[in-house]
Write a structure and sequence with these properties.
- The chain is mostly helical and about 140 residues long.
- About 50% of the residues lie in helices and about 5% in strands.
- A two-stranded antiparallel ribbon has the order 1-2.
- β1 and β2 form a beta hairpin.
């Protein structure tokens, strides 16, 4: 699928579309340092865990805090995780003109999270689900309307 089409440059993906990019996101009346922080907070109801993630000093540290408490995540979170990420990216897109312009300027290029993660990215063998890229391409189609 991905190999025969023009792929959006990875450096631009990282700069604008990655949940780790330097774009604060207001989501559900909270301001998060990054989309990564916002996403991992949605896994939990425990205010102590959420505070640990919210105040993490980097997206990597937010992820690490979340992984440490994963056994306590909401039982239905895995069923909702794509919808949660889409909502957060929708908020990011609405709140940041540079992200909106980058998405508009991506034309019809395939947007790929080019990481070994086989769910959010394309995996090590290139056959991953690319759920993150699919979200951004869906949002791009909505912008065209």
């Amino acid at each position: 699928m991905v190999h025969s089409q023009k792929i959006f440059p990875l450096d631009l993906f990282e700069r604008f579309f990655s949940p780790l990019s330097a774009h604060m996101v207001e989501y559900k009346e909270m301001l998060y340092a990054t989309a990564e922080h916002a996403y991992h907070c949605q896994r939990y109801t425990d205010p102590t865990i959420r505070k640990e993630i919210e105040t993490a000093r980097s997206p990597q540290k937010a992820w690490e805090a979340s992984q440490k408490h994963k056994s306590q995540q909401l039982p239905d979170f895995n069923d909702r995780k794509v919808a949660v990420m889409e909502d957060i990216f929708r908020a990011k897109l609405a709140q940041h003109e540079d992200v909106k312009e980058a998405l508009k300027n991506s034309g019809d290029e395939v947007i790929v999270k080019n990481y070994p993660d086989p769910f959010w990215g394309i995996g090590k063998d290139g056959d991953g689900k690319n759920e993150m890229g699919k979200i951004w391409m869906k949002l791009r189609e909505e912008l065209k309307r």
